[in-house]
Specification:
This is C4-dicarboxylate transport sensor protein DctB. With 630 residues, the chain is α+β, with helices and mostly antiparallel strands. The protein is built from 14 helices and 18 strands. Among the domains are: 118 residues, PAS domain (Beta-Lactamase); 114 residues, PAS domain (Beta-Lactamase, 2-Layer Sandwich), CATH 3.30.450; 151 residues, Heat Shock Protein 90, CATH 3.30.565. Strands 12, 13, 14, 15, 16, 17 and 18 form a 7-stranded mixed beta sheet that branches. Strands 7-6-11-10-9-8 form a 6-stranded antiparallel beta sheet. The two termini are 75 Å apart.
Amino acid sequence: MQCPNPVRRLPSLTVKPKLIRPLLLPIPLLLLMLGCGYGAYLVSAGAGTRGLIESGERQLELHARGVESEISRYTYLPSLLELENSVSDLLLQPSAQRRELVNGYLEGLNRRSGSRAIYLLDTSGRVVATSNWQDADSYLGEDLAFRAYFQDAVRGQPGRFYGIGSTTGEPGYYLAHGLVHGGRVIGVAVVKVRMDALEERWEKARLQAFVSDENGIIILSSDPHLRLQAVRPLSPADKERLARSLQYYWWALNEWQPSSRKPLGDGVEEIGFRDRDAQGQEHGERLYLAQTRRLNDTPWNFTLLSPLRDVRHEAMIHGALAAVGCALLAFLLIAWNERRKVLATRLAAREALQQANNELERRIAERTADLRASNQHLREQIRERRQAEQTLRQAQDRLVQAGKLAVIGQMSTSIAHELNQPLAALRTLSGNTVRFLARGALDTASSNLEAINEMVDRMGRITASLRAFARRADDHGQARLGKAVDAALLVLQVRLKACPLSLQREYDDVCLGIDQTRLEQILVNLIANALDAMSEQDDRQLWLSGRRDGALYRLTVRDNGPGIPQDARAHLFEPFFTTKPGEHGLGLGLTLSASLATAAGGSLGVAYPEAGGTAFELSLPLLPTPEPSP
């Protein structure tokens, strides 16, 4: 076969990128993703904040008007007392009877209006009549000249004041009006109003809002922890002034200090608070949008807090989506660019491949003939090997059968001697039986016939065991160990009589995964080898012991013979190797036994005990023992 011409290697037509490109490409992609994500986050956060401001302005206006409406409900009450003559009479000419009359009037008016208390002060600031005159904490006789609302009302100005009562310590909103008679102020009417209803409505609506007074002190809040805290820093002079006025009683005026503040517009700012657990540990920051509006007719400010968490969370989602979208678009562009390069490379390669195709076709035609010849030669070799393998299998089967026949041939002389004795006895007994029948001795004749029957059965058992041992069998099947041992001993009973030994059995009658005849053949070989090894000694002992080992059953056949020489141990299982004289063995027994055990999924090994002798261990698959039929 000619050696084909070497094929000319075509130059590579693929575009090799520079080594620096794969390293630097992810960096701008990552920067682009971060830029797109951050930009989308800023845009989404700005839009969400603007939307929250618009929504907050509507809520701010709505709830601020609610506060104004709640305050304006009671603005007319103080001036209403100016129309009552009994009030003017009490202030001009005080008496117990007139005080009792005015107390009853104020009590009824307070009950109908729903205010907390209505009371009347003279020009010195002392309470001369009150709606709670019957209560234990009545204001009657109390001096309230230090209150700012009294001082404003005495000067003829409306008194508006939020503070904590000096008698009960109860917060409230005070509305005062100077009562004029004859062109001068003769007294002051005061109405105290509770604002708890507003806080309860805010809490039910889950609204975060508060109202701060002219001093910057939070007087109403949906969060009780913020109440009576300063929304702006207080100077020492302010703190001393507020403490002397007792406007907030003896309450400590702590400053409300957000962790961050960022103005966003007129009356709008972004503030943050630190989250703290029960142990005071900080866990992140909560951001709010604070919108403040001045309440009409009061120096108060209404502030609405809107959480920015949802807006920031939505902005982060939009930023992440934008980053992912940017990355996806970038990967699509890169894939499109690579696809374009691949198409360009394929177009360039098509012309080169067309030129090389003609050259390859010519060379392929030259090599086709050589390949056909090589293929035909390989087919012939495969056919020869298959035929050789089939011949080898047949030879192996013949070898196994030859081993059996060799064993039978070795036993033929002893078996012939064993059969000659019964035959001679049969001739004698049959002749005597004829004479006894002629004489009429039927009992003796019957005894002779029974003896003849037993001898015939004995001869049948001997020939049946030889036929079963000599026939072919399959690798797999089921075999009972006890039955196989008995059959092997029956085949070898002539030799056992010639060479008596001490047999010890220590095994279970288990069911093994091998053909019954093949197990018997293995046992015949092993026991026969043991008999040959112990033939020259007087004390002959043979042990048959078995044990379970997982899915296998291991049977050990051990003798007390002289053992196997050291130089023969390595060749023990080789075909046609034997330590016996030529007329006593072919060297196939152990080879065939090991082959039969391996074919059944087991093994045959040998050990050399320290006490002497030889021990062969037969391992075979263990099958479930069938239950005896009833």
